[in-house]
Amino acid sequence: MASQFCLPLAPRLSPLKALKSHFRDIQVGICLAIQRSDKRIHLAVVTEINREKSWVTVEWIEKGVKKGKKIDLESIFLLNPALASAEHTTTLPRPLPSLSLVPSKAIGDQRTSPRWIVVAPQKNKTPSGDSSVLGVPTSPCLMKRKKSPCLREIEKLQKQREKRRRLQLEIRARRALNVNTGNPNFEIMRMIEECRRHLDKSKMSIMEPLEDHRICVCVRKRPLNQRETTMKDLDIITIPSDNVVMVHESKQKVDLTRYLENQTFCFDHAFDDKASNELVYQFTAQPLVESIFRKGMATCFAYGQTGSGKTHTMGGAFSGTSQGCSKGIYALVAQDVFLLLKNSTYENLDLKVYGTFFEIYGGKVYDLLNWKKKLQVLEDGNQQMQVVGLQEKEVGSVEDVLNLVELGNGCRTSGQTSVNAHSSRSHAVFQIILKSRGKLHGKFSLVDLAGNERGADTAKANRKRQLEGAEINKSLLALKECIRALGQNKPHTPFRASKLTQVLRDSFIGQNSSTCMIATISPGMTSCENTLNTLRYANRVKELALDVRPYHQCLTPIKHETPPMFEKHIRNSEISLQREELVKISCIQSEEEKRSEAIATLATPLIREAVTTWKDSSSWWESIQETANGVNYDVDFCIAQSLSILEEKIGILTEIQTKLKLLRVDLQNQEQVETLA
Ligand code: ADP
Ligand code: MG
What we know:
It contains 25 helices and 23 strands. It is an alpha+beta fold and 677 residues long. The strands form 5 sheets. Strands 8, 12, 13, 16, 17, 18, 19, 20, 21, 22 and 23 form an 11-stranded mixed β-sheet that branches. Helix 16 runs parallel beside helix 19, helix 23 packs antiparallel against helix 25 and helix 24 runs antiparallel to helix 25. The chain is elongated, with a radius of gyration of 44 Å. The chain starts with 14 loop residues before the first helix and ends with a helix. The structure holds adenosine-5'-diphosphate and magnesium ion. The site of adenosine-5'-diphosphate (ADP) has 18 residues, from helix 11. Adenosine-5'-diphosphate (ADP) binds next to helix 11. Belongs to the TRAFAC class myosin-kinesin ATPase superfamily. Kinesin family. KIN-13 subfamily. One of its GO terms (molecular function) is microtubule motor activity. It holds the Pfam family KIF2A-like_1st. This is Kinesin-like protein. It comes from Marmota marmota marmota (Alpine marmot).
């Protein structure tokens, strides 16, 4: 901001007289602009005045040497015209920060009138002609018209600096833009961020957690790992509330524009990437622990794609290749079991705790506590499944349990897949068994399932890997059916369909069985298909458990006629309905989705191929309609074209039919071979 200084008015006189009269204004100590013999103009301090002969002497410092010069009246007024102006009252420009204004008296002026000059805070008060300016004249006009070279230099440097900074900022902004635009998923990322910003989370977090834990299905999202971050993978999973999971699927239109398809799923609980194992445990396995003290059979499954965090959840966090099992669900269950054991309610039961650890790989059972000894699964006279020879180790403390887990983990079968070095193609079952006077009292089975991925990983894998995949699919399908049967309280449980469900038979039978499933998902866009498969599977498990009757029936007052078991489901259904109203999201898959999921579940690369062929050509009906609706259409041509399209489609369908039949025979043969073995 400009400061304003008023200078006294000079009297109005004739031009010649005026010059002389103005000459009187020049005082010793003020600064004047002078011109050197080499034409340079700079400031100098008046040191002597000869008013009669009309000249002054001025001095300045040049390269450390004091110099002086005599100047006549004309030269003074030529170079300092402001001195000759009639009026001196004007506005002084703002002094430089390094300069200060002092009354001219301060440097030897004899006059008492208030005259001001600008002085730089330097010891040497003589201005130099080249760089260091000590003083500037009081005259505002001088200030305006003549800037010292030094000031000019400073200004020039300042301008250059500003220009450089501007340029650097521009370069940085351009670089950032390049990074983003260089990422092919930049547009999708922007859309996901936009979607997250507009999510009304307040509406999604008012639901109460379900109390019924007979079947509880939760989802856990893990953070993006280092590899995904390096590959610039995108986090496409949003957990807007504690029981809703949203998948932002990137899709492409025919005109190649990309768009987001957001799919929303609802579960008992949804945990985001910041949730700890303890928190997950608190809402999943922990509520089931006490049931085993009341002769219950509890089961906790970790289900998901390889690398999505099943083993991390069940066994504990990895540090390098070693696993800290003290923070896994195995250890947390053990902790609570030993706590409850001291509870007075259960003291007199004389309970003893045992641990077993085995894995199911390729339909065979191996004891992980006995050097992976192959075990037989047989059905006894009471229709109980027995794993013959399975080691049951008695444990007296949490440490004992951790030792068993470590021992078993060391033995686990693991194969390398493209997803994760710790991946496992086997189901690992860790059981904590309570026995009272030698008889089975209760059992908690903790199952770290094999990776559920199919598609890419198995399609290009060798035959052994494909068989592994088929076996895993079969057991996961059977597992789903068994949980469905448990949820629906069906008299028949199809546990014989796989080794996994055979050995877990008593977990699905009886009123005292309860199950929780933790579906683990990877957040990356590259895992989208597997993540959706996991969520659909988990959703189906819960949906079927809830979907005992249509919603409108559930809400009619028929509860008193309903068996107590069903009441729980009805309550769940009511809550579920409220959720739907509140969140306005449908968790029930459309018929189309169900169909494609059923196909996807069956899918071997063979069927997938056929399904894709069919899907790709599904616009055939539109083609026929288009031809028929065309102006001036040729009937013969239209019929011929329609017949040709239909023939092609019939061919595709027949091919799919043949392939499916072959696959069925293959599966039946395989089952026969297994039964004989
Ligand atoms: P899976 O058993 O499903 O194949 P893992 O449990 O082996 O997957 O997890 C794969 C990697 O991801 C491991 O390095 C693990 O430490 C890491 N991981 C999984 N879940 C989480 C999580 N919730 N938080 C941090 N890291 C995780
Ligand atoms: Mg694992």
